[in-house]
Amino acid sequence: KTLESVLAQDFKDFEIIVSDNASTDNSKEVVRSFEDSRIRLIENRWNIGFAPNLQQVTRHAQGAFFNLLSSDDLMNPGALRTYANLIQQHSERKDDLVLMSQVWDIDEHDKISGFRCKSRIAFEPKRAKIPTPEEIQAQSLCENYEGFRLFVHAMKRFNTVGAFCSMVYSKELWKSVEGYNSTQLFSPDMHF
Q1: Mean of the per-residue pLDDT values for the chain?
Q2: CA-based torsion, 156, 145, 13, 79: positive or negative
Q3: Distance, C-alpha 168 to centroid of its chain
Q4: 90: exposed, middle or buried (C-beta count within 10 Å: 0-12, 13-18, 19+)?
Q5: What is the distance between the alpha carbons of residues 33 and 53, in angstroms, rounded to a whole number?
Q6: Considering only CA atoms, which of 55, 22, 20 is closest in space to residue 189?
Q7: In this predicted model, what pLDDT tens digit does every residue of 2-12 receive, in sequence order?
Q8: Residue 25: which of 62, 70, 71 has the closest Cα?
Q9: Are 64 and 95 in contact (CB under 8 A)?
């Protein structure tokens, strides 16, 4: 379902890299069942851990921007086009740009069970009531924040400012911080 949600995007200029971290289920067969040249499968011989696996998949990426999804994440229709439009609008700062969106939590039956967005008072993730489509449409589509301010807020709580699966950032930014620190055993996404 994760792969299908990406392949269904109306923005088609992307690659999908699946880094199979020595899974014991049929994940590799599922990935191979898709006949799409944009999908590449990397197979780890043993489980190398979360942070090294993030490093593995981003190191093999050819694209200029990353959006990392876990196997239980789904991408909303139009997400890639929205990200691409925002990158184009902010092209003068694209290498330093970090995009994120609100996210819906889904249960094991793909039913929406929650909604996470940022607080309007202090930039920190919070759970909110599940909005209707009309309420989402009425919200601002884009807000800009200074990175240093977000960094300070995040470090005070050692937390991310947005959901990992909604983060989009450039390969140049990834290189500038030397990627995912494989020595960071807990919360490498927060460390990154």
Answers
A1: 84
A2: positive
A3: 6
A4: middle
A5: 22
A6: 55
A7: 999 999 999 99
A8: 71
A9: no
Long-range Cβ contact pairs of 99-107 (< 8 A, separation 24 or more)? 99/166, 99/167, 99/168, 99/169, 100/161, 100/162, 100/163, 100/166, 100/167, 100/168, 101/162, 101/163, 101/166, 102/166, 103/163, 103/165, 103/166, 104/76, 104/130, 106/74
Tokens 């898709």 found at:
34
Q: Can you tell me which residue has the tokens 């460390």?
A: 191
Structure tokens at 105: 């939590």
- Express each pLDDT in 1-41 by its tens digit: 999 999 999 999 999 999 999 999 999 999 999 999 999 99
Give the helix/strand (H/E) hosting 66: strand 65-66
pLDDT tens per residue across span 72-117? 899 989 999 999 999 999 999 999 888 888 888 888 888 888 877 7
Neighbouring CB atoms inside 10 A of 9's CB total 19
Residue 98 host element (H or E): strand 98-99
Both tokens assigned to 146:
């200074």
What does the block give as tokens for 145? Answer: 């924040």
Q: pLDDT tens-digit profile of 153-171?
A: 777 776 667 778 888 999 9
